[in-house]
Amino acid sequence: MDERADEGYELTRLASADNFRDVAGPGYLTVDGVRLRRGVLFRSNELQLSAVDAGALRDLGIRDVLDLRDHPEVEAHPDAEVPGAAWTHVRVPGIPMDDVATLTSREEGLATMKRVYRVFVEDDGARAAFGELLTVLADAEHPQLFHCTAGKDRTGWASALLLRACGVPEETVVEDYLLTNRFDGTRAKYLAMVREHLGEDKVAVYETVMVADTAYLAEADAAVAEHFGDLEGYLYDGLRITRGTVESLRARLRG
C-alpha cells in the first residue's frame, strides 16, 4: 500500500499551483510519537497546471483528483488533466461571490468567512461531501490529491480533519492550516486586481476572504462543539462515516 511513501520521498513544488503540498507536511509527529507518511495524500489550490507540473503529479503516482469546488468555479477554470488520474467532483459550497461583491468593510469580510466555515459543519450537503471525500481517501491504495480554488478553506478544513483524526497535536494542525498564507502568489495576483480596479482602501477589505485565519477555523470548531459535541461526533454523526473509514485513514497516513 502507498509504496511511494518512503524515507527518500521529497515533495515536489509546482510553479503553476503554489499551494500544492503534502497533507503529512514534512512528516508530522502525532501525540503518540508516530511520524505521518508522506507521498500518500496531497492538497492543492485549483489545478491550472503547466504541462511540466501535470507531469510532476503523474510522476508522484497520483491516480485520483478530487475537486471540492462549486459548479461555477469548475466551469470557469476546469482542472488540467493529470495523466493517469481520474477526476471526481465532490462539491462543497465555497465563498458566496454575491456576498463578496458587496463587501464594504473588513468586518463584513470576516463575518462572511465565519459563515463559510459554519457551513462546513451545519449544511447537510457540505457534510455529505466531506463524508464522501474522506471515504474515497480511505478506500484507496494509491496517492490521491484533493483541492478547491485557493486550497485554504474547504481544502484546509478537510486537511485539519485528517490530521486531527490521526492524532497530530492541535498546535501543528493550526500551523499547517496557516501555511497557506506563505504561498501568496494567487492572493497577490487577485489583490493587485482589487487595488487596480477598486482602489487601495479595498485591499484590506478583500484580503479577509483571501487568507487563512485562525478565527475561521475556530468558528467551524465552535459549530462542531455546538451541534456534534466533538470531532468524533462530527465525523460519525455529522459526516456519517464509519469507524472503519477513520481507521483506514489512520492506517494510510500513520503507516
* Major beta sheet, strand line-up: 1-2-5-3-4
Q: Please tally the β strands and state the result.
A: 5
Reported for the largest beta sheet, the result is: 5 strands, mixed
- Span from first to last CA? 9 Å
Sequence stretches where pLDDT stays below 50 over 5 or more residues: 1-6
Please characterize this protein's 3D structure.
Mean pLDDT is 92; it is low at 1-6. This protein is 50% helix and 7% strand. The longest helix is centred in the middle third of the chain and has 17 residues, at 106-122. Helix 4 (106-122) packs across helix 5 (124-139), helix 4 packs parallel to helix 10 (214-228) and helix 10 (214-228) packs across helix 11 (231-238). It has twelve helices and five strands. With 255 residues, it is an alpha/beta fold. It has helices at residues 51-59, 71-76, 97-101, 106-122, 124-139, 154-165, 170-178, 185-198, 203-207, 214-228, 231-238, 243-254, and strands at residues 21-22, 41-44, 64-67, 86-89, 144-147. The termini are close together. The chain has a five-stranded mixed β-sheet with strand order 1-2-5-3-4, covered by helices on one side.
Summarize the structure.
It contains twelve helices and five strands.
